[in-house]
Structure formats: structure tokens, C-alpha cells
Amino acid sequence: MIGHSRVRLGDARRHRVVILLVVVALAAIASACSGNDPTNLARVVDGANPQSALDPKGPTAETIDNLFWVVFWIAAAVFFLVQGVLLIAIFRFRQRKGKERAVRQVHGNMRLELVWTIIPVVVLAVIAVPTLSTLFDIRSAPDPSENALEVEVVGHQWWWEFRYPAYGFTTANELHIPVDRPIYLTMTSADVIHSFWVPPLNGKRDVVPGRTSNLTLQADDPGVYVGQCAEFCGLAHADMRIRVFAETPDDFEQWAQDQQQPAVIPETGSAAAGWETFNTICVACHTVDGTPAQVNLAPNLTHLASRTSFAGATIDNTPENLRAWLHDPSALKPMRPDLNMPSQGRIMGMPNFNLTPQQLDDLVALLETFK
Amino acid sequence: MATLTPTVDAATPAHHAPSGVWSWLTTTDHKRIGLLYGVSALLFFLVGGVEALLIRLQLAAPDGTVLSADAYNQMFTMHATTMVFLVIMPAAAAFTNYFLPILIGARDVAFPRLNALSYWIYIFGGLFLTISFFVGGAPDGGWFGYAPLSTQVPELVRMDYWALGVQILGLASLLSAVNFITTVFTMRAPGMTMMRMPVFAWMALVVAFLLLFSLPIIAVGLFEVFFDRNLGTLFFDAAAGGRPILWQHLFWLFGHPEVYILILPAMGIVSEVLPVFSRKPLFGRSFVIFSGIAIGFMGFGVWAHHMFVAGLGPVAEATFALTTMFIAVPTGVKIFNWIGTVWGGSVRLKTPMLFSLGFIAMFVIGGLSGVTHSIVPSDTQQHDTYYIVAHFHYVLFGGAVFGLFGGIYYWWPKITGKLLHEGLGKLHFWLMIIGFNLTFAPMHILGLRGMPRRTYRYPDGLGFEFWNFIATVGSFTIAVSILVFLVNAWRTRKRGEVAGNDPWDGRTLEWTTTSPPPEHNFDVVPVVHSEDDFWHRKYSEDEHGNAVPVPGGYEPPKAGQDDPPIHLPSPSYYPILSAFGMFLTVLGLVYVPWGLFLAGAGVVTIVWGLFGWSMEPVTREGH
After folding, report:
1. The whole model's pTM is what?
2. What's CA B253's distance to the chain center, in Å?
3. Position B260 in a domain
4. Quick check: helix, strand or coil at residue B474?
5. Running DSSP on this structure, what letter comes out for residue A354?
6. Prediction ipTM score
7. In whole angstroms, what separates CA A371 from the centre of its chain?
């Protein structure tokens, strides 16, 4: 007996060792799979789940969240009821060894079947009422009395363009909004279908080429809220992120006034040399207000230095990261910038221009002046 | 037509089935074609599974580097395309091919050569999609191929492979749909009325109609994508007045019935397994059949719930929210009737039963999360997130795949004559259901916390790390369970317990014949007197309604010397020839203009195949 149990103990221990080894191996694989990304989200956002739809920070997201939980608890009740009855049926009517149960050959029960057809209809009808009323509610444009701020959104592969018609400037990837005021987004796409989604503030809405769609955002408190493109849009879909900076009305006005200022072409030093490069290469796609750079195929760089991130809000905006980006953009974000193979006349993403170290330093110096 | 004399003694068949590779390439026997479908689906299941494991490795930790973004996008596109078109649909076709004729007492399908053509187009379509990996990259625009992303970058031929590959796979299914419908309507044994047909046969019929009506829609859409890419037809080019949203309507008007095409065969299998292992008839049989038909009709009226954030108006959204809620009713009816079948039975927890009960438990979860999609406001948060990935895996893996594995364990002894090992089967089941829930349950949480689908990486700091790691552990647990199944299948070849005609004390006609069945299925075509006819030959009911064995049991009738000769379809190589021509044609079309030479050769081959087919003598010399 003793020897027998010792063998068993050994088996159990061996099993534990095997399980431990498997877990360690998987963890090792997982960490080996993990690369370095120059994004430090903790620098800008709080909380363990900053992109969660279950942690609403605005009225619409809150309405949606409340409706979700009502349905969730009804579904949970149905779940426990059905799984419970199933388990009872299995255990209660399980055939015991050697004992053949007498089984009455029941073919059905019309009354019972009608009951369990009608009950779901009633439950669903109950759910349908708040669903439809909330639906029409969240799809309506803000009331004119609410003094909504209008922002135009254009989705690009793979970054966001934000235009503020009331102020006359354009920015990219980082949306600044005043708190407690509806932000009415009018959205379209320059290429394929994208979807604008900042879960703490509202559900998502597709951004479709050739037509406009609308979405209302509103934040209760100042803070940074993150989101990203939610409709698969090709190679760098994962790297088409959004940061929303909700600010007090005063802070927002200050920011908007800063953004309205045109850039000044530097006259001296490294930055001036940087402008020479910019004016021969970068102007082909980028706009810098107040300069001859006026092509709108890529993000507006007038106030690049005032942003916390770039490249679809995926890379922290530091001089080192900017230099690395200009040196080899596709190393930091996958794109299709092949100049020899433009697709339907377009190149998709930032190309590598094989800039010299001197050009890189000068360009970074220039971009740092675009505050 | 080959003819053979009915066997006087089942143990010494007068007719020996031909063997060798050529006999498989030219076979028109519905059972052999079913086996070909089954083995092919299993092989593609392993391919799709490896793709899934690569996806899970990439996402195991933030900023994964196992796959590039480019490789990742190919991987999730091909994982879905493979699992839908090359695994679940053909696995259902395998069971339908093998068992539909036997279940209704027929000797083959209505059009045996057309059946072979369906299979060969399928296998060439699968090869066509798979070779894209080796010639510049597999399709990378998603299995849903949303335009104008799918029509972008025409310089890369990846989405041409997708559009043409799915096109011919659809053709294969369309042909088999016509075949199965005709078989059910014209080939039932005497006394096999429609309402006496086994539920699996009914579900196969509903699926065939769904295929018949939904595939032409996607065929039109796929041609439009292909023409936009190669001819500049501008169907979906917004700048030229095209409509990107139109593609979504076309795709989902096919795509949602497709969901029921994938799940209804599994529901049919479960409806066969539960009564056998509960020793009770299916509870509310006609309710189950009619709710299957209802699902078939309503499946065409819910497609826009895939488009609740696409920008339809609130009235359209409200309409489709209500239809989506409504389709939950017949689905719920089925679940309640299955539980009603188990209730009061004598439940034998053999492996097929475990998979069927697992199907119910998992499908309930997928059904409930499905109802939450109809809540349009909360769907605007859940759409295109991992919540959706969780939902449809509970339906298509927890549902369809569990049901299909139940069918494999249930019918394996009939197909091979040997029983799969019970212990290994149970190990397979438990590993799979644990691994499945470890993989997909956390995805509900990930989605609600804001993780979108189809993203090749996620940054640190969004709270996605833990549950992604658990999901990856779960996916490898599933992989181990599949290895257990393969070991079981291999082991059974040599050491499996001999099954006999009726190992489970079955209820339907397939258990009256030998295991494996003879080429002609039945020595004497059965005459059917009731639903679950075989059961009623073995058991009668006492005054309380309890089942009591009929004294003496059941002996299958033997053919007499003066019975008419049995006609079986002759083998033919024209189906595989025509299918090969189709392969050449689509391969050539990818590489327009030079490929047109190849496509031309393909068209000639198709015409040759179909001409030879139509000229083939009905009875050939020497047969």
C-alpha cells in the first residue's frame, strides 16, 4: 500500500513539474514574441483599461453601457437557467452501470413547446423597447441649443485628419475637445473604409469613401481618451490610433488659438538647413501653414511639435523617435510606400528617402520648431 | 451503369469494390466521395489550425514579432477562408454525402457524376487558394473582402486568388445543393415520407436550399470585385460613383445564410445523437424540423446586423435589430427540445453524446451573445472587436465543430467498422472543451475592453496582455486535443474494437446495414413504416409507454434470387477532368493578360470534360 501511494505521489509531482515546464515555456515564448514599440501609453493615459467600453467617460457611452448591463443580466439569467436544466437532465437521467432505466417514449408536449416558444418572444420584446428608444436617441444630431462643436474627420491609410472649420486649422491623430460640450463629427474617408472609435466616449461609426457619416462625442471630465480605427483598412490597421484630449473650455480655446498660428520658416542654423530638405522632399505630400508646403496627402505638420505622438498616434513624439522615423519609417510602422509601385497613383505611407545623417539632424531640428 | 446481382449472403458480397488510386479519382460512389470530402476537410482543418496557432502566438504578448503585419493579415484572412469554405462546409458535405442517401434508404445520390464534380472542384479550389501562399502572398483583405480595400492594390494578385477561389468553391457547393435537393425529393425509400425523414436529412435539405439561394448573390459580388480589380469596372469605386456599401449588402446577404449553412448540419447531427444516447425519441420532432426551416427563411432577413455601424439609417437598424432578435426564437426552441430529449431518458455518456451535450452548452453561450448584437447601441461598441470573435467561435467552433466531431465519433464505426477508443475520445472532448473556453471566453472581456479585431499587434498599457496570454494557452490546449483525436483515429485502424452493424442501438436506417455498408448500401431497399423505423423494429412500447425489446430482435432482409439487379453508377474520369479545367481557368485569370492562354486551355478542358460526360454511354461494355 505504502509503496503504491509513493508511486502515485511521484506521478503527481511529475505532473506538476510538467505543467510548470509548459507554463514557463509558454511564458518564454510569449516574451520572445514581444518586440519593442516606441509607444509609452502610460505617459498619457490613466487606468488599467483605458480603451474599455465598460468604463464610460461621456453621456452617450454611459447610456450604451447602462443598456448593455440590463441585457447582460437578462442573458446571464437565461444562461444559468438553461445550463442548469441541462446539467440536471444529464445527471438525473444518467444511466448507472448495469441498471437499464425504463424509458418512457415521450414524443413531445405541445403545450410545453408552445410555452417555451412564447417565453423567449416575451423576453425579447421586453429587451426591444429600450433598444429601439436608445437607438433613435444616440443616432440623432445634437440639438442646436447645445452649441455643438463641429469637427471634420477624414480617415486615411493609416492616420486621421481632423479639421476644425470654426477655427480654420487642421491637425492629425490627436483630437482636442472641450469638456461638457457635444462634438459633432462629420466623417469621410480618402481611400478605404475606416471606423472611428473612442470607446470611453461613444460607440464606433464607419468612415466611408464617397459619403459622410456622423458621430457625437462628449467627455464629462478633462483627460486623455484613447481609441483606434475599428474597420480593417489594410496593412497598418492596428497602427491607426486616436488620442482625444478633453480640456476645460479655457484650455481648449488656448490650444485652438495656438493651432491657428502659421509656422515660420527658420532663417538660421540647423533648422534652416532642414527647411531646404523639407522644401525639396516633404512638400510633395505635407502641408505646413504659412509656408509654400500646401499638399494635403499626409498629416498637416504645422504644429507637429505640440503633439504627444505621431504616425497614427502610435509613436511617442520625441526627437530620437522622429529621427528614427525619418531614417526608416517602415521599420517603425508597416506601410506600402514603394515609390516604384504606386497603387492607383498613390503611395501608401511614408517612404524611406535615404536621408543622410546631416539631413536627418536638420529635419528633426526643423520639425521641433513647428510648435 | 454497372449492375450487380443482389448479394444472397451479406458476408460474402458478390461484388468487390474496385481499389487503387484510379478508382478513387473516378469514383461516383456517394460514400467514397463523402470520405474524400471528410479526409480533405480534416487536412485543411490542420492547415487552418496552424494558421490559428500562429495568430495566437503573435498575440500572446504586446507588440508581437512572430508575424509581420503583412503575414498576419494573410493569416487571419486565410484562417477564416479555410475554416469556412475548406473545413466546415466540406465536413458537412462529407456527412451529407455519406449518410443522406443511406438515411433515406437510397442507393446513391440523384446525380453521382455531378457529385464527383462538386468534390473535385472543391479540392482544386482549396489547392488554388493554398498555392497563393507560395506565389507572392495569400489573400490579405479579410475573408469578408470589404471593398474598396479588396479592390485596392491590383498590382498584388492576392485578392484575385480570393475572389476566384471562393467563386469556384461556391460553384462546387451550388452543384451539390442541386444534387441533394433532387436526391431528397426523388430518391426516398418506399414509406419514407418527408416527415419520417431523419432530422439530419431535413437539415441537409434546408442547407441545400440556403446554398441554392445565397451563393448566386456572392457569385455576383465576387465577379464585381474581380472586374473592378482587373477591368476597372468601378462597381465599388466611390470617386467614380460606385458604392462601397453595396459590397457589404451583397456579402452579408450571402454571409448570414452562410452562418446557418455552417451550423444546421451540426444541429442535424446532434438531433440524431441525442435520441440514440438518451434512448428516447427526439422531443417535439416536428417543432425541431419546422424551426430549422424557419431559421432557413429568417436567415435571409437579418444580414444588416453585420452593418450596424456602417451608416445605415436608424429605421433600417431598428428593423434588422428586431429580425435578429426574432431569429433567436426558433434557435431557442431547438435548444429546449434537445434538453427535453435528454430529460427522462437513459443517458449514456459516450463520446458522441459528450460532444453533442458540449455543443448545446457552448451554442447557448454563442446564441446569447448573438442576441446582444441585436442591441444596436451596445453593438456599436462590440462590433469588430474580440467580443464578436468570441461570439462566432462559440457558434462555429463550440457549435459546428463540436457537433461535427460528435458526428465523427457517432458514425466512425459505421464508416470503418471499428469503434474509436472511448477513453481517448473522452480525453479529446475534455481537452477540447477546456481549451476552447480558455481560448474564446477571455475574448469577450478583451472585446468589451476595447480590443479591435484584425490587429496584428497591441501596445502595452491597454490591459490586453493577461487575457491574450490565456487565450494562447487555450489554443495550444485545443491543438493537443486534436493530436489525441489523430492518435485515436490511427490506433483504431489496427486495434479498434469491431463495431458490428448497430453498436449504439441506433434508430435510423444506416444501422440496419453492414459496417462499412456495401457499395449498394442495402441488399433490399427498406420499406419504412414510421419515423425512427429501425428502433420500432427492435422495440415496442408497453402500457406505460416504456420501450421493451421485440423478442428475437431484428434481422436485415436478405435479397432473393429473383430480385431485380441493382444499378450503380459507373466510374467516370470526366468530373475530375472538368474540375481540373476549372482550376486552369481561374489560375490563368489571375495573371491576365498572359494567363489568358492558360485560361483558354482550361476552358477547352472544361468543354472536353462536359462533352465527354454527356456522350458517355449509359452502360459501358465490360461492366
Report:
1. 0.93
2. 19
3. yes
4. helix
5. -
6. 0.92
7. 26
